[in-house]
Amino acid sequence: MLALVLLPALALAQRPAASSGIDRTAINASVDPCVDFYQYACGAWNASHPLPADRARFGRFQELQDRNQQVDLEILQAAAAKQDRTELEQKIGDYYASCMNTAAIVKKGIDALTPELDRIAALKDMAGIGAETARLHRLGVTVVFGFGEEADPKDSSRTIASLRPEGLSLPDRDYYLKQDPRYVEIRQRYLQHVKNMFQLAGDKPQAASLKATMVLDFENALAKDSLDRVTLRDPDKTYHLLPKAGLANLYAAFPWDAYFKAAGAPAFESVDVVYPDGIKLLATDLSSQPIDAWQAYFSYHLLSSSASELPQPFEDEYFDFWQRYLAGVKEPRPRNLRCAAATDRALGDLLGQKFIQVAFGADAKAQITSLVEGVERALGDDISNLSWMTEETRASAIVKLKAITNNVGYPKKWRDYSKVAIAPDDYLGNSLRAAEVMSQQRLEKIGKPTDKTEWTMTAPTVNAFYSPENNSINFPAGILQPPFFDPRRDMAANYGGIGVVIGHEMTHGFDDQGRKFDASGNLRDWWTAQDRDEFERRASCIADQYSGYTSVDNVNLNGRLTLGENAADNGGLRVAYMALQEALTRTPGQKLDGFTPEQRFFLGFAQVWCENMSPQELRQRAITDPHSPGRFRVDGTVHNMPEFQQVFSCKPDAPMAAHAACRVW
């Protein structure tokens, strides 16, 4: 029964609190918490949870996601087998069934892609290239650039068109541009992988090899003409609202009007071009690409994006390069779990409606809302008492904080999938049809008022997010479970778990990105010059601190790439601790399992970050991930918290005690 997998939070809340919420079996008591708090809190858990063969990363997030996925799986299996079904049950049940129907997948082969591949093979000129770019975008295949909708950063009440650099296969532009032996080897392996994919699609070895070389050359040009990830994080450097007609001045040979029509975009007058100079560079660099290079590039991206819906040889080849080689995963996850995840990606708001019926109760929503209110009060007190901020900026910061919208559990409005046709024996077709309908829905928003209630995550997701344009914090039901939140346990661990997550997301509104948006979600400088300079000085302290951490081998973190998340970790931990202190004045705590409430708070925070990762994954994330690995998210933050040093009686020269602590919020 589903209730045996994950009890509804309402039922949990009716039980008396019986636990401190701290996993004592996770603790390595041989480690001094003042020397390495992460190893103290997580050392035993990490040792007893070696990296599974089907994972590049496994931690408490993934542990919870697995439990949520078991709920999803039972929902989907029941929907697939049920005779008298609702439309919702038919769609999610048949999508899952089509993924599990490997016999039908083998029988169909790549037939569903044949018309697309034939269309690509028939390309003759730039007009055809524009039409095919649009066609692939509609199918969810990102090539050359990304086109879509966004809330206008400077007028978030309206939705505008957006054009951004995209179209690479490898994880980052560095993988194409750097000449280190490791990157050279990756490019050689990538060439072989692309060649293998073309051979699986029917090409002879020599033709496949030539096509693979053209794909890499094409993507090299895209990489050279793209922005680095740190620059992409700066909204001031990536907002360029241009007339639609002005695109011809950037890339005259590309048939922009025909592309927009074929993509299904409504009429619009202006577009936010993230990197105009990059479009100009592409105009030069892609002009030298022959038509067969465009064909090879388009064909590979179509095959690659569809690999998981194609027969086993395609899946195996995709896994062998992207997972086994690049991420260090030894074997694929069980197919039923992959199919549950695929259904969540394609029809997430349908599956989410079923998930919250089982795994999220009204009482849990009320408790989380109360936690949010407590953390918000604490952040307000923090801002009100900052010694470095002038009154002018402080007043605007308080206005922004009070304007934050708090969304808990699931969106106010679910996505509409009524136009998505799902069949139990057409996995690839289901995937393409779902992608096309969702693409059309997104483009139809251009020119309309922004829907600020929309979510970018599905309800079962173990994550949370802050939206700067909406000035909202959003907590899917998927994360509102142990170890983050449990109505049965003492509140200190809940403040350390989900409370810090809440504080983290709120602080994103005031990190190096979020601080540039005002209370209405508009990109506007509301800081005095003095406060802006002081913020940058304090943020640089955090950036420098994390740049000093070695992720794996000789690869350090990029403190500028991870600055927003690190700043939010530090701020979130501080304000959640303040919120706990306020709560303890109303409900005094006592020692449980040998720990004071304050110690349980820090342990509750640290233990959500217990994790193991493959060396390959650590290397890749150091380049691409704006989040630091778990051990630095723990040790890096408590290092800056004098309250932590007091709670655990750390000596002034202890490694977890900073001599000059970094602090923004």
What would you say this structure looks like, in words?
With 665 residues, the protein is α+β, with helices and mostly antiparallel strands. The chain has two domains: 27-72 and 337-408 and 415-449 and 461-647, 3-Layer(aba) Sandwich (Collagenase (Catalytic Domain)), CATH 3.40.390; 111-305, Neutral endopeptidase, domain 2 (Orthogonal Bundle), CATH 1.10.1380. The chain is 54% helix and 8% strand. The chain contains 28 helices and eleven strands. It has helices at residues 2-5, 9-13, 37-48, 60-81, 87-100, 102-108, 114-121, 126-138, 174-177, 181-200, 205-224, 229-232, 247-250, 256-263, 276-285, 291-305, 312-327, 335-359, 362-384, 391-403, 427-443, 491-508, 529-547, 563-586, 597-607, 615-624, 630-638, 642-647; strands at 57-59, 145-152, 155-165, 241-243, 270-273, 405-409, 465-467, 472-476, 550-552, 555-556, 611-613. The strands form four sheets. The protein has a four-stranded mixed beta sheet. A three-stranded mixed beta sheet has the order 6-8-7, covered by helices on one side. A two-stranded antiparallel sheet has the order 1-11. A hairpin with a 2-residue loop joins strand 2 and strand 3. Helix 4 (60-81) packs across helix 18, helix 10 (181-200) crosses helix 11 and helix 19 (362-384) crosses helix 24. It starts with a helix and ends in an 18-residue tail after the last helix. The relative contact order is 0.15. Residues 1-17 have low confidence and may be disordered.
SSE inventory with pairings:
Blueprint: H1 2-5, H2 9-13, H3 37-48, E1 57-59, H4 60-81, H5 87-100, H6 102-108, H7 114-121, H8 126-138, E2 145-152, E3 155-165, H9 174-177, H10 181-200, H11 205-224, H12 229-232, E4 241-243, H13 247-250, H14 256-263, E5 270-273, H15 276-285, H16 291-305, H17 312-327, H18 335-359, H19 362-384, H20 391-403, E6 405-409, H21 427-443, E7 465-467, E8 472-476, H22 491-508, H23 529-547, E9 550-552, E10 555-556, H24 563-586, H25 597-607, E11 611-613, H26 615-624, H27 630-638, H28 642-647
Parallel strand pairs: 3-5, 6-8
Antiparallel strand pairs: 1-11, 2-3, 4-5, 7-8, 9-10
Helix pairs in contact: 4-5, 4-18, 5-18, 5-21, 7-16, 8-14, 10-11, 10-17, 11-16, 19-20, 19-22, 19-24, 22-24, 22-25, 24-27
